Amino acid sequence: MRKITTPLTKPIRAKLRCGEEVLLSGTVYTARDTVHKKLAEAIRNRKTLPIALKDAVIYYCGPTELRAGGCFGSAGPTTSSRMDEFTPLLFKKGLGAMIGKGSRSEKVKNLIKKKKAVYFLAAGGAGAYLAKRIVSAKKIAFKKLGTEAVYKLTVRDFPLIVGIDSRGKDIYEKKR
């Protein structure tokens, strides 16, 4: 299993292969539907974003409330396709990778290849296990959204599978 650390620069992303299991460490930002809509609106209006997206990793996750000690009880992935309409704008700001579950649209797959980005899959139904890989969590933007706010996570050995690699190879496509 390959160990990788954020930021996920193009040379790091270029080494990853579809279907490969990785352990990710470093900074990851949570963002779901409402946050994506707000980020896209800010980009369209040329406003400063609350997070730097260059080579960043966004986790499509709506965790449970923080417990004493600053950790989540559960932090599982949500369905990624709901973010597809906003993803092109985030790529314009240099987004390096996304973590979620499920397949992506053709448009997003093509952009992943064009931008040399990566889409990771996290195990659905394993939110409590994944939360144990989060070392720290801090709510940093859109705080009124509660658990759907943007959290800056520090993860250690967060288990993922490369769902779509930087060459556009997709784990969900049937081999011919």
Description:
There is one protein chain. The chain is α/β, with parallel strands linked by helices and 176 residues long. It has one domain (2-164): fumarase (Alpha-Beta Barrel), CATH 3.20.130.10. Helices cover 22% and strands 27% of the residues. The protein has helices at residues 10-15, 33-44, 87-92, 106-115, 127-131, and strands at residues 2-5, 21-30, 57-59, 97-100, 118-121, 134-141, 150-164. The chain has a five-stranded mixed beta barrel. Strand 6 (134-141) and strand 7 (150-164) form a beta hairpin. The longest helix has 12 residues, at 33-44. The protein is globular and about 45 Å long. It starts with a strand and ends in a 12-residue tail after the last strand. The mean pLDDT is 94.
List descriptors:
alpha/beta, fumarase, 22% helix, 176 residues
Number of domains: 1
* Structural class by helix and strand composition: alpha/beta
Instruction: Please describe the biggest sheet, giving its number of strands, its sense, and whether it closes into a barrel.
Output: 5 strands, mixed, barrel
Unreliable stretches covering 5 or more consecutive residues: none
Radius of gyration: 15 Å
**CATH homologous superfamily heading:** Fe-S hydro-lyase, tartrate dehydratase beta-type, catalytic domain
Order of helices and strands: EHEHEHEHEHEE
Mean pLDDT: 94
Shape: globular
Secondary structure: helix percent: 10-25%
- According to CATH, the fold-level topology is fumarase
User: What is the total tally of β strands?
Assistant: 7
Distance between the termini: 26 Å
The side-by-side strand order for the widest beta sheet comes to 2-3-4-5-7
**CATH class call:** Alpha Beta
Strand residue percentage: 25-35%
CATH architecture heading: Alpha-Beta Barrel
